[in-house]
């Protein structure tokens, strides 16, 4: 039997699975870990136009979120670690064994670059950097500046990084090093065995067991998905492996038709018996929330557009003259609807959150109640970002 999920129900399910239907109550450190385990990962990004992405993502789910709890879980408790999903992310350390597959894949994909680096003497840097970290403990890239022991520098590596930074990233992406913490946004690298607690440094699952873990855990966090969406969630398995997993597990799954805002319903998969679970999930709070541009609700842009009718792109890397909205524009969620986007920046010297422009989606009215709700949300977000007041700049309504 095929379940047909109305668009409003599909939005509710996905919002709940992504932690956006939770009550506001005080969020403890243990509660924060549970939240991150529930949604799977939190993307990390260096841009701090208002607040860095990982902090903003968690704040949007619970305004009582405390940054020091995240730091403790990462740097003291070893309950979280940093690595890659589709991008740099904070991930529960309970999942660390499965990331060994990513380490192995990174070693393969970096092999061609490694050969060209080797010809330029890069191997000396790779060995030297690892030995210094082993001997001295956590180090940052800047600790290797003008390091005479490494010898003459070969040409830079990725993104024109200096060779030592490239070597540190190579060892991190291939598993020899882990992130022990950050100063500002600069990584401190240490040996993996000194960062990841021993219970999580067990051998990884292999073969079908690994694919089953990756696909099962992805579908649990998506609620419903195509095989391509399952593969893309962690970016640990290929689309072909996810498609094979679906075919091999039809007895555990049931077909669902997901109604979008427009167009034909999209055939997807859910776990058998999901209808009752979907019915039990809470509705999102009606309040208005400003999301991070990197919020996991919008990570899969095509899925977000189907479910919410919201066409959203980050324009950081788009030339200024070709941007439709702006450099770093924040999506606005109200209840289960994406109602607009806002261009703003925290001016910490002046103590203000400066609103440059607001765009509401077609059919969304700029009612007094909605604008008051936006003002209240901006005040909350501003306090979280460390500024005292909201300043609406000339032309912010598009006049």
Write up what this structure looks like.
There is one protein chain. This protein has 399 residues and is an alpha+beta fold. 40% of the residues lie in helices and 18% in strands. It is built from 15 helices and 13 strands. The strands form four sheets. The chain has a five-stranded mixed beta sheet with strand order 9-10-11-12-13, covered by helices on one side. A three-stranded mixed beta sheet has the order 1-7-8. A three-stranded antiparallel beta sheet has the order 2-4-3, sandwiched between helices. Helix 7 crosses helix 8. The radius of gyration is 23 Å and the shape is globular. The N and C termini lie far apart (53 Å). The model has no long low-confidence stretch (mean pLDDT 92).
Topology:
Layout: E1 3-5, H1 7-17, H2 29-39, E2 42-43, H3 53-61, H4 67-76, E3 80-84, E4 88-92, H5 96-109, H6 111-119, H7 122-136, H8 163-173, E5 177-183, E6 186-191, H9 192-195, H10 207-222, H11 227-234, H12 239-248, E7 253-258, E8 266-271, H13 274-280, E9 288-290, H14 301-308, E10 329-334, E11 337-347, E12 352-360, H15 368-385, E13 389-392
Parallel strand pairs: 1-7, 12-13
Antiparallel strand pairs: 2-4, 3-4, 5-6, 7-8, 9-10, 10-11, 11-12
Helix pairs in contact: 7-8, 10-11, 11-12
